[in-house]
Amino acid sequence: xxxxxxxxxxxxxxxxxxxxxxxxxxxxxxxxxxxxxxxxxxxxxxxxxxxxxxxxxxxxxxxxxxxxxxxxxxxxxxxxxxxxxxxxxxxxxxxxxxxxxxxxxxxxxxxxxxxxxxxxxxxxxxxxxxxxxxxxxxxxxxxxxxxxxxxxxxxxxxxxxxxxxxxxxxxxxxxxxxxxxxxxxxxxxxxxxxxxxxxxxxxxxxxxxxxxxxxxxxxxxxxxxxxxxxxxxxxxxxxxxxxxxxxxxxxxxxxxxxxxxxxxxxxxxxxxxxxxxxxxxxxxxxxxxxxxxxxxxxxxxxxxxxxxxx
Length: 310
Prior knowledge:
Elements: H1 14-32, H2 35-52, H3 61-69, H4 80-99, H5 126-134, H6 140-155, H7 159-163, E1 170-173, E2 176-182, E3 188-192, H8 195-207, H9 232-245, H10 255-266, H11 271-278, H12 283-294, H13 301-307
Antiparallel strand pairs: 1-2, 2-3
Helix pairs in contact: 1-2, 3-4, 6-8, 6-10, 10-11, 10-12, 11-12
């Protein structure tokens, strides 16, 4: 963790509070497995403490409320989702400080978080995946992006787990390809890389003048036209154009994890199999995940409609 992630507290408290923040962000990254989450938390904490200019043990609920509901860099009032995210970030930091014995109260506990109605998650069906793949151009970038989409859909791995893959993570065993991943919450494993994804990966590397077998162990799997590893934000921007061309609503990269779960369930896999596939902590998590994707089936409307003559 670099020093530029630290918050500028008052000079007399600088060392102690900065250390606590760095420790909090390190723990957050270890638990979430997402650098993007850590960057978001770091930015919000820096913004809050940069505004109030006091150490955490002097923060009041009123100060949290004003910051959480105040306009951001754009000057616009924050949405309920943004307000909730700000409060969740600050509350998480204070819970950490309480565990460390550095403060005794959490100023966020006295505040009511706004109610939000996030859009329900959506998974692509087989026809939609085919439509999406059909609009990707047959260029080096397109061939690479097609390989990424196939890997996401066929493995069900999270965005960061796929984008951080290196050449050393891909191995062959008796002609079967495997990938090693490092997942959320410190989970890791080695699983078969489905043949279509493996072949698409090799085609993508070939399109950029590379061969998997000749890459250094630490070389990123997804080459960039600018050199180095492809950034997920760059892929996201291009993905939106693909969705538009395919006549599909815009969506984030996580839709492919939703799609992977839904497609496997639709193809007859049990909830236990899908749960293992997704690395979920419990069957209850998977059940909720699938229910949100599939919706709640209503078996009673038919007789009612017949009774009222519609």
